[in-house]
Amino acid sequence: MRLFAGSTWDSGWMVGANPKNHVDDIARRIAFPGAIGFGWRWAILACVFVPLSLVLVQCGRAPNPGALAANASAISNTQTASGDSFDDRFPKPEFRERFPSESEALPLRQLADFAPKRVQTQSYRVASLEPTAPYKRAPQPAADEVTTLVSMKSSAFPYYGNNPGSEAPFLNIASGSRKGHRSYSGHVYWQDQTYNDNRVLVHIPENFDAQKPGVIVVFFHGNGATLERDVRDRQLVPQQISDSGVNAVLLAPQMAVDAADSSAGKFWQPGGFKRFMDESVGSLAKLYGDPASAKAFEKMPIVIVGYSGGFLPTAWSLEVGGISDRVRGVILLDAVYGELDKFASWIETHRNGFFVSSYTHYTSPRDHELMSVLRGKGISVSESMDGPLRPGSVVFVKTGEGITHRDYVTQAWTKNPIEQVLVKMAAPSMRVATSTVSSSSR
């Protein structure tokens, strides 16, 4: 480029001359065309002024008011598309968030830590919605009841699939390499904190006997919960299973960890509930202490209990879980927030099972809607929990204003409702043992 070599122009740009001198120099060259050739003069002017004009045009361009209004409207419509607020559908927890201390935490024990159990000789109440083939086993050493956490690959989370309601990826938010999910309320929960716990709370009462007809209870907890702090310690679900005297074991998968989110995770997937139950068979047999008991566990009927936000994994497990015929009972505790079609379909096509929904004013409108749908199908609906539960029973129970949603798992229409439903399910008309163990003796 010999144009600038050795010239005043060149030295000014390369060395950093006074900007005023540059302006004067440019003015002189424009005023006196002979200073440089005609073609070179216009080339220089284009290089100096055209880029500057483009920058000024871009910087001065105002946002389109119509586009801004459309964006704001879209955000607002997305948050209120359902017609009611998140607080209406999912009442806010009334308890302070508190993680368990080291002394309160339930240790994750290894399967090898559990010794074989003995054949129990105590009397007990046996749930027998469908006979299961017993197997023969020699007497084993005594062992205490088992309450522990077990990791299962088929549990609800982690989950990397789609939300079937929208067919959009469940993990729909990203921040660098970190992924998360924007919930119904608009809150963002991160995968590594909220959707990464595949543990399952397993409880086997000390008087459980796999040689006798039994039942597997699957508990889907609600929003804002952890297995230790809430399911075990506050809602006393393992204790209710033991105190019922029913020959039952408990599986409670961790859903969204301590979050206001009801996402079903792997239970959204076709066959997801079946895969979960198939994997649990091996874990239950090892914890029980006898590998041969797996054959009994894989044939046992299932009772699903869904509390509050647990309605969603319950409904999808019934609809696409792959083993709805093994489900012999459904218990919803203030949990009919939606998916009425799935509950109605299961009730209509599984008349050998029972269905119980207990509700407060939060879920009353939808419970009454579901009752109306069922009556329209010619299905008898009771609104009283008096008497035993039988195959085909459909019961809706309203609870008073003094009953709180937070305490519903331990105080609904009765104290400890899970325990009471299991006792009613195991009435003598349902092939139960005649002698029982009193809960006061435990």
Essential attributes:
2 domains, Rossmann fold, 8-stranded mixed β-sheet, 442 residues, alpha/beta, 13 strands
Summarize the SSE layout with pairings.
Layout: H1 8-15, H2 19-31, H3 38-60, H4 65-79, H5 86-89, E1 146-151, E2 162-163, E3 168-169, E4 173-175, E5 178-182, E6 188-190, H6 191-194, E7 199-204, E8 215-220, H7 227-234, H8 237-243, E9 248-253, H9 272-288, H10 294-297, E10 302-307, H11 311-320, E11 327-333, H12 340-349, E12 354-359, H13 364-376, E13 394-398, H14 417-425
Parallel strand pairs: 8-9, 8-10, 10-11, 11-12, 12-13
Antiparallel strand pairs: 1-7, 2-3, 4-5, 5-6, 7-9
Helix pairs in contact: 8-14, 11-12, 12-13
Walk me through this protein's architecture.
By secondary structure, the protein is of the alpha/beta class. The chain has two domains: 8-60, no CATH class; 110-159 and 195-441, Alpha/Beta hydrolase fold, catalytic domain (Rossmann fold), CATH 3.40.50. The chain has 14 helices and 13 strands. Strands 1-7-9-8-10-11-12-13 form an eight-stranded mixed beta sheet, sandwiched between helices. A three-stranded antiparallel beta sheet has the order 4-5-6. Helix 12 runs parallel beside helix 13 (364-376). The longest helix is centred in the N-terminal third of the chain and has 23 residues, at 38-60. The radius of gyration is 33 Å and the shape is globular.
